Amino acid sequence: MSTATDTANEDLQHDHHDDHHAHHAPSGITRWLFTTNHKDIGTLYLWFAFIMFLIGGAMAMVIRAELFQPGLQIVDPNFFNQMTTVHGLIMVFGAVMPAFTGLANWLVPMMIGAPDMALPRMNNWSFWILPFAFLILIGSLFLPGGGPNFGWTFYAPLSTTYSNDSTALFVFSVHIMGISSIMGAINVIVTIFNMRAPGMTWMKMPLFVWTWLITAFLLIAVMPVLAGAVTMVLTDKFFGTSFFDAAGGGDPVLFQHIFWFFGHPEVYIMILPAFGIISHIIPTFSRKKLFGYASMVYATASIALLSFIVWAHHMFTTGMPVGAELFFMFATMLISVPTGVKVFNWVATMWRGSMTFEVPMLFALAFIILFTIGGFSGLMLAITPVDFQYHDTYFVVAHFHYVLVTGAIFSIMAAVYYWLPKWTGKMFDVTLAKWHFWCSLISVNLLFFPMHFVGLAGMPRRIPDYSLQFADFNKWISIGGFAFGLSQLIFLAVLIKASRKQGEPVDDRVWEGAEGLEWEIPSPAPYHTFDTPPVVK
Amino acid sequence: MVIKLVTIVVGMFGFGFALVPLYDVFCEITGINGKTDNTAAVYESVIVDDSRTVTVEFLTRTHTGMPWKFEAQTQRIEVHPGELNTVEFYVRNPASRPIIGQAIPSVSPGTAALYLNKTECFCFNHQPLQAGEEALMPMQFYVDPQLPEDISFFTVQYTLFDVTANATETEKIAMTQR
Ligand code: HEM
Ligand SMILES: [Cu+2]
Predict the structure, then answer these.
(1) CB B88 within 8 A of CB B122
(2) What is the CATH number of domain B33-177?
(3) Which of these, A260, A503, B109, B137, could form a disulfide with A311 (CB 3.0-4.6 Å)?
(4) What's the complex ipTM?
(5) B13–A225: do the CB atoms touch at under 8 Å?
């Protein structure tokens, strides 16, 4: 895809830049509170996500400390359950999703040649309600009786009959998170539909933009269903309805259907933008065009559509009839076809490319290999009869951490390292970043790989204690966990240095093989870009 | 555009709730989650199929917090499809306060639920018992002769819930007057 901004345009931009100085005059906290600039909001989202990543990570450290040895040592079981619950909620809704929204804010306008997001004020709102959602959620942990303890999946009746009163706070915080991500998604869709530069046809759109567009549609389709599910939990618990209570004519299994109707598309919400990111980084450092651009677009769309008909693979053990078990088994396996297409396309892109291994590329390569491991364990879980054994064991925990940590989160790290020099105008500390990569890579596998084994051997998930035969593996898992947690402090150091604008200045293109509109504007990206739309050839 | 997207959002929020009746209708038509009909069937010109016998087993349990004793008088019965049978269930309220119970049936394998026709069942209504009171609750049923050939055995499980908190005003008055 070749794009060009002619010099006249660039001059114009600089003029505009000066005109706009009045806009970013407010400094200090008000600049960030009232900002409607997509770059500021992107930065806010990314820092917020990173802070949530550290808080959620601290909770994981509590979990791993308790599981370091068999027996109950450090926390009581109820608090342990609160930790697994809130860890999951924070990582999904507080870390991964806001990080992707932050990247979308920064990158979508720059990639399609738009001056900003289509609905800047709504953009400000959708970010600023998020901290309140998480204040409520985390605050509920300090109330008498504690916070939510029923798992991030909040199955009824655990979240209705057996939960404590802080469930109301949990419900409201999920409502706010939902509203925030719906607003973010609407913004992305409107921006992409209405604000593409002349010549930026659908099939010229960069893949990050494509994958985010499809993700945004998934978001507006399923976040309202989640909002409905938490609302039903709220009314069942406090207002005497019986959506999920058999005594009143409801059905607890219905909860699982509603939740997973949201839940499975949700896992794709957390991975499709990652596919987009990897599809930018691999071609850059292979110095080749992406292999099979069109097939990537169609694969993304078909994954999104299929994700609506596989939800009951989370429910194989609820006593569904054989016909339904088989349907959901085959539908689930069908999804791995377009996913496989993507992996093959990335490999084909690297084939005979002149590859170099800068930090973003290291993360992208680790992503491809480790995400594929997660895909394979997913396929194993999709086989109905074996899932009867694997369900609710550490094997499932291993599966979704491979796809989420070494998948989604590694892709976010790759993206940050890839675009950070464009944002700050300076190269980040490469030595530190390499330490971050290698420490993370080794520790993350020590952390999650043995979980496959303890899972296959029958260790159940979400328990504060376990039988003795799992002790050795759990010790290693915990050591891997602490090491992975500490490695993220290296990332923090890199980011602090970068935000202080330390480092070598970079040129506009930053990476030799980088292609796309965002590499044609100056580094650091000026506060306002593309006030006059570029012409895409 | 924004309005269209907001309409989708509102529509999907509604869809989440629409899943509740949809689920019930779907299960009723296909019978896949073992829910039986909540209204009395009519026993009329049903042909008894003497050539087949089907074993029906009755299980009982009480939900957490429900103190009643609850037992099937007949735990297992062999019936011919089409034949009308009555079984009884014993209940006793050992608590020192009146309690209203509600039994919820569940049939396994689920598909058999479609062919279990109850002409009379205690599970159609709330069942009040005074403190210390005991009762025999009848259930009259026949198995539809259309029952698929491969089912020769099925289980009906009743779970008894304490629904005193959800009692209607008339029920409350009736309980205090007795
Ligand atoms: C090849 C593709 C995949 C297949 C076949 C697959 C299959 C499955 C199955 C069958 C389960 C249920 C296991 C059980 O509870 O017994 C599961 C759980 C899960 N999967 Fe996947 N999966 C795939 C990809 C992904 C991706 C890409 C993500 C997220 C980025 C993901 C996230 C999850 C999560 C979070 C759970 C656990 C949910 C919970 O119970 O807490 N999966 N997967
Ligand atoms: Cu799934």
Answers:
(1) no
(2) 2.60.370.10
(3) A260
(4) 0.75
(5) yes
Residues A492, A439 contacting (CB under 8 angstroms):
no
A5 is a domain residue: no
Tell me the catalytic residues of A: 87, 116, 152, 180-181, 264, 266, 268, 279, 313-314, 339, 342, 461
**Could you identify the residue written with the tokens 């300090």?**
A142
A20 in any annotated domain: no
Pocket test for ligand 1, best of A267, A380, A412 (most atoms within 8 A of CB): A267
pLDDT tens column, B142-170? 888 888 888 889 888 888 888 887 777 77
Does the structure show a pLDDT above 60 at A150?
yes
The predicted model scores a pTM of 0.87
A451 lines ligand 1 (CB under 6 A): no
Task: Give me B16's structure tokens.
Answer: 């989440």
Does the CB atom of residue A291 touch ligand 1 within 6 A?
Answer: no
How many Å apart are CA A481 and CA A463, to the nearest integer?
17
Q: Which among A299, A150, A331 has a CA at the least distance from the CA of A237?
A: A150
Q: Domain count for chain A, please give it.
A: 1
User: A194-252, pLDDT tens digit by residue?
Assistant: 999 988 999 999 999 999 999 999 999 999 999 999 999 999 999 888 889 877 778 88
Say if the Cβ atoms of B110 and A321 lie within 8 Å. yes
Write down the domain spans for chain B.
1-30, 33-177
Which tokens sit at A322?
């054989």
Residue A119: its chain B contacts at CB < 8 A?
A: 2
Q: Which of B10, B12, B161 sits opposite A247 (nearest CB)?
A: B161
Q: What is the largest CA-CA distance in chain A?
A: 73
Q: What separation in Å is there between the alpha carbon of A53 and the centre of ligand 1?
A: 21
- Which residue carries 């409201």 as its tokens? A172
C-alpha torsion sign, points A133, A139, A141, A145: negative
Q: Is residue A106 part of a domain?
A: yes
Q: What is the CATH number of the domain that holds A305?
A: 1.20.210.10
What residue numbers bound the domain in which A340 lies? 36-519
Beta strands B54-62 and B153-162: pairing type? Answer: parallel
Residue A284 token pair: 């850059």
